[in-house]
Write a structure and sequence with these properties.
four-stranded mixed beta sheet, single chain, alpha+beta
Length: about 325
Amino acid sequence: MSNIIYHYTSPEGILGILENKTLRFTDCQYLNDKSEFRYIREPFEKAWSEICKKYNKEFNISDVNYMIDGFSKSPYQIDEIDYVNFMGKVDGNFNELISANAKTHRYYVLCGSQHKDASNMWNYFVKNGVYQGYNLGIDLSFLNRKFERICRSNNEIKIFSKEVIYNFEEQVNIIINKMDEIIADKDGRLSKLFVTDEMNLEAKIKFSIWEFIHEQKLFFKNPAFENEKEHRFILRVDNEFSNRDNLSMKFRVGESGIITPFIEWKYTLDEKGELFKQITLAPMIEPELAEESFKRFLAPTVYRNIKIIQSSIKLRF
């Protein structure tokens, strides 16, 4: 995979990123596709059926239903389990234990594509029949390193950075392989970390699967969207997050008029050269004028070393 991902955005969006020296991570509940965080139910149910046949094992059906229902009832956040308290109460009600021993997080997403010049991506930025958009080439390796350092000093934040998986069979196999690892306990971790009587071990298996599915759902999408070739950089942020490390919680008014929360990261001038590599202009009626205006915007700033590229896609009239 290339170290560069391409963040497609509007003219207002790219101007704000470069002028204000900020990147925004949008609360996943406010992304365009409202169904995508529930989609994982399909490959999960298939994988669950296969794994039960393989091990000739059926967990309590109410617990399975709880996990599945959770994808619909609370798709935009995850409750991290306090295992120390939970393991002392495993004979209690599963739903009540979740509520009593959980710490809630929400997810904030920066979307990129592996395509640096794709017509289907530019189509999201058509206004009055004309393309109006740009994409910003972001160095993924630098972004990962930067936020890994932030996470080491701030336990309220965890990062996930992966390509989105679109193939249904691949999704099912990923879940099955993880279930194999958890249930078969091939490396002995469960016996080392947790008590091994039958009830506690079964509870740990169920919770381990539950947590994995809630994290993986961020990177599973319907095969119909495969041509987007999306890569997601995600911040999992504690609901009690306090502004620090040049990160702050902010709000804006979205296109539909809804007040939208996002995490804003303010990068420094010294970081810009490593963070941004190029800017690609959408297919435009006046590409030379668009490029010239962008160069005039960049020239007085420290961004002059960013490469500017015209889209290779020809407009049709």
